[in-house]
Amino acid sequence: MALDSIVGLSETDGGFVFEHLDEGEAEFLYEEIFGQRCYCPLVPLETPDPLIIDVGANIGLFALWALREWPESTLICFEPMPPILSVLKRNLSS
């Protein structure tokens, strides 16, 4: 698979479009992160501009959610797998 090739695109009911490598996994992650809000902090953050470090960022759905929640945040993402990293970069740049 070429690193710059799009494997799949998903669009949510709200018009949110993102790239993925596996549609089933992407739908599961989207529902977990955006629908069920499983990654919400247990206590409110004390700052509107937190430093967020996403280790194993995958295709970037958590990062995109975090940027919606805290648009003034600083976000650092790590993803070691080159094909997934390419998708992460494209999702975050869109």
- Which structural class should the secondary elements be placed in? alpha+beta
Radius of gyration: 13 Å
Give the strand order, joined by hyphens, for the main sheet.
Answer: 1-2
Shape: globular
Strand content bin: 15-25%
Question: What report would you give on this structure?
Answer:
With 94 residues, the protein is an alpha+beta fold. The protein is 36% helix and 19% strand. It has 3 helices and 4 strands, in the order ββαβαβα. A two-stranded antiparallel ribbon has the order 1-2. A two-stranded parallel ribbon has the order 3-4. The longest helix has 13 residues, at 23-35. The two termini are 21 Å apart. 17% of the residues are buried.
Features:
single chain; alpha+beta; two-stranded antiparallel sheet; two-stranded parallel ribbon; 3 helices; 4 strands; 19% strand; globular
In short:
With 94 residues, the protein is α+β, with helices and mostly antiparallel strands. The protein has helices at residues 23-35, 61-69, 82-93, and strands at 8-11, 17-20, 51-55, 74-78. It is 36% helix and 19% strand.
